[in-house]
Specification:
Strands 1-2 form a two-stranded parallel sheet. The protein is globular and about 30 Å long. Strand 1, helix 1 and strand 2 form a beta-alpha-beta unit. With 62 residues, the chain is mainly alpha-helical.
């Protein structure tokens, strides 16, 4: 898949960020990108707190 829809994420922690980042690395290794759709605001906030928001946001976020 080239996109992941995060709309259903109701409870999450830093492990969710780790999974998204790992999927992005795997997509990049295949020469494609991973679009992260419907990133919940609280998960985006957590990404900012960890300093990885630039890696998560702006990838087709809707």
């Amino acid at each position: 898949a080239t996109a992941v829809d995060c709309a259903a994420l109701a409870q999450f922690d830093s492990s969710a960020l780790a999974v998204l980042l790992a999927w992005q690395r795997a997509a990049k290794a295949r020469g494609t990108t991973l679009d992260i759709l419907n990133l919940p605001p609280k998960l985006a906030s957590l990404a900012r707190a960890y300093g990885v928001d630039a890696l998560i946001e702006g990838t087709g976020r809707h």
